[in-house]
Design goal:
three-stranded antiparallel β-sheet, alpha+beta, 2 helices, HNH endonuclease, 69 residues, 3 strands
Length: 69
């Protein structure tokens, strides 16, 4: 079973190095791929946090479930 941790976006979730996430930009797929505003924070299994838009959150969930299957 996939364990997925998702929070509502907050700048407090990120280190100063995570500039895109702290600026509330979707950091999924790299800087050239998504320019949408982040609404959520995904906490990866390794503990790293990343800002994400709703569309990329759905993609992440689908991928994790598929990989766990």
């Amino acid at each position: 079973m996939a364990q997925i941790e998702v929070k509502g976006w907050s700048a407090d979730h990120y280190t100063p190095r995570a500039e895109k996430s702290r600026a509330r930009k979707c950091a999924q797929g790299g800087s050239e791929v998504c320019g949408r505003e982040a609404e959520f924070t995904i906490v990866y299994p390794n503990g790293e946090s990343i800002a994400t838009c709703p569309d990329h959150l759905i993609t992440y969930v689908h991928t994790r479930i598929k990989d766990d299957g």
